[in-house]
Amino acid sequence: MSFINKLVKDSLVLLLFCLFLFLFLFAEELKNISFFTRIPGTFFNVNTIFLSIILEAIPFILLGVFVSAIIQSFVSENVIRRVVPRNAYLALIPAALLGIIFPICECAIVPVVRRLIKKGMPSHVGVVFMLSAPILNPVVYASTYFAFKSTPYVANARMLVGFISSIIIGLIIYSRFKGKNILKVQKDDHQHHHHQRGNKLLETLYHASDELFDTGKYLFIGAFLASLFQAFLDRNVLLSIGTSTTFAPMAMMGLGYVLSVCSSADAFVASSFGSTFTEGSILAFLVFGPMIDIKNTLMLFGYFKKKFVLYLLLVTPLVVYFSVSIFQLIFL
């Protein structure tokens, strides 16, 4: 029965994607049909935004699922234990800096971290890597630097605040979930392709395909919700509070969550608000958005226990908000 339910859900998600692709390709023709002329143009905007998010995220999703599959096939539990420092606190620093070596954005990091934790990486270390990697990687730094050419310190500020915030969140997660399993138990975790263990390449490909379908459905649903928010969100409300040092960071963090723009490109979105919002609020957008957005929230609920995800959703915005506020007081 569980297999049938999974098949039905996967089929519905695939049909949804095919529908949006059809609308995207034939939108202009459909607008000339009398029935479709009654549909507000905003709904066609939803379709365009949805596909733009999907097309932007898919290359990174593919990267993420293949990295996850390689970890599953070639990285043993002993390797993880040797690489990660035994001291729970010292392990946080290299975990936060791993993003420099592994340029993975938030679209792909969740399945990778899930696999690492299953292989033996401490939960709080995995969380720090998950939150920091979409920010502390060369691709994101370069895009941020070029997006803010007139104020290049924004790129450095993003790296610094992202690093500090992820470390603090890791410490909080460690104190709350020390020694506890935060991963959701899935029935098929131990049933995937045992007959392929003799061939590492085939095993990697099978794991990648499984991971792609599991992750893809959350990406599609998350992209759809994000496109709805983008199409119908009244940005005039945000602009009215853009100059407030207290409320503007909150507004921009909410916008970062809703827009769900890949961290490799979100700096160009943020720079478009530079003339309206405070520098602190722009920084909040650049730090919080890659950590938590609609897309990876659904992935988190799919792979991690609900109690942990809800706790992370509460702690992360609070830590980022206070980190940005302190940075504003000192440097801005």
Tag the structure with descriptive keywords.
single chain; 332 residues; mainly alpha; 16 helices; 74% helix; 0% strand
Question: What's the structural blueprint in terms of helices and strands?
Answer:
Elements: H1 2-31, H2 34-37, H3 41-74, H4 77-83, H5 92-101, H6 109-118, H7 123-132, H8 138-147, H9 153-177, H10 200-232, H11 235-240, H12 248-259, H13 266-271, H14 279-291, H15 294-303, H16 306-331
Helix pairs in contact: 1-3, 1-10, 3-6, 3-10, 5-7, 5-9, 6-7, 7-9, 8-9, 9-14, 9-16, 10-15, 12-14, 14-16
Distance between the terminal alpha carbons, to the nearest Å? Answer: 58 Å
- The H-and-E topology, N to C, reads as HHHHHHHHHHHHHHHH
Q: Briefly note the structural class of the backbone.
A: mainly alpha
Low-confidence stretches: 190-196
- Helical proportion, percent range: over 70%
Number of strands: 0
Global morphology = globular
Computed over alpha carbons, the radius of gyration is: 21 Å
Mean pLDDT: 80
Tell me what portion of residues adopts beta-strand conformation. under 5%
Helix segment tally: 16
Q: What's the structural domain tally?
A: 1
Largest β-sheet summary: none
